[in-house]
Amino acid sequence: MKDNPTISVIIPVYNQERYLGQCIRSVLAQTFQDFEVILVNDGSTDRSLEICQKYAQKDLRVTIIDKVNEGLVLARRDGLLKAHGEYITFVDSDDYVELSAFERMVEFSAGNTIDVVVGNYDRIYDSHNLIKQRTGHVVNADWMIGKGEITKMILGFEGLQHNSLAVYVWGRLYRRCCVLRAFRERGNLLFPPEKNVNEDMFFNLAVMPYVDNLWMTNEVVYHYRYGGVTSRYMPILRDGWRYFDARYDYCYEFDCQQCLPAFFRHYLNFFYMEVRMQMHYHVDTEEGIRKYVAKELRERKIVRWAIEHLPMEKRNSPKEEAVLSEDVDGIMTLARQDEKRLWRHYLLKRLLLWYQKMIG
């Protein structure tokens, strides 16, 4: 194996014996071959380590880190510290990559002048054997983004809040020196020490200030297995408050205070979705959810800013008014109405699909 390959492929592994072989094979079969593979066995209790060892014996580019279970975040960190490549890429062990993924992303790096290459992906619905195209970007062509726009995109502003730049780390190349600099200066944000459901968002939030440019493409390079270990339901905000507070702090650090109204309305969407999901999945009792709502209103930085700075005449909806008035009863009522409406929509959609299937 070369001492300094172009790409270091970091694959955290925890109890994925069903899919791990397909994942590793998709990497080793790449049309671009100048890479190393770092398999981080995070204390698996199934045959995952045995599968890792099988491929390591066959290919000298494969290295295994066998460690006690500490979670996905620290597994990625340990893989990074072992990496030698100019770029790093992460692959989840239940997913797989397109055959030409590395070749295309290296080409997009444009002669080593691009710090991050962001590829597109599709979703694999394993239980139905379906592949569904998922456009992860708001662009229709390949494009380069400069430093000023990166900050706005990573924070989710200026009409780009639906962009997936911050949402995931797989299916892309990161220049390793940028990641290492972020690790030295923002280690606890890059790899949060406590368990958090927004680990990919924290990683990108920490790395992007050290990136001068990135290339986004709608070309599919990654196949994401929906319903796997990284896509099971978990409350979004209840365990993810640090991410929203970090974004708020970044608005001031990068002089984006003018974007705070847009950030507040972006937060509102997540807030009401979280309340609905807690109701739907019975995450807590009614009183427990009410306490969560009251705590968000009391402690979230962007909410306190909005209460203080958004005048009455600029409050655009009942949902916004309920939050800015700190009306817990109103928030619960609006979220419950949304839940009923969305449930009716889901049932109608399922009935329509059933009818279409029946009539052929």
What report would you give on this structure?
The chain has 360 residues and is an alpha/beta fold. The chain folds into 2 domains: 7-226, Spore Coat Polysaccharide Biosynthesis Protein SpsA, Chain A (Alpha-Beta Complex), CATH 3.90.550; 248-358, no CATH class. 46% of the residues lie in helices and 18% in strands. The protein has helices spanning 20-28, 48-58, 72-82, 101-108, 147-155, 176-190, 199-207, 241-253, 260-280, 286-299, 301-309, 318-324, 328-358, and strands at residues 7-13, 35-42, 62-67, 87-90, 96-97, 116-125, 130-134, 143-146, 172-175, 213-226. Strands 1, 2, 3, 4, 5, 6, 7, 8, 9 and 10 form a 10-stranded mixed sheet that branches. The longest helix is centred in the C-terminal third of the chain and has 31 residues, at 328-358. The protein is globular, with a radius of gyration of 22 Å. It starts with 6 loop residues before the first strand and ends with a helix.
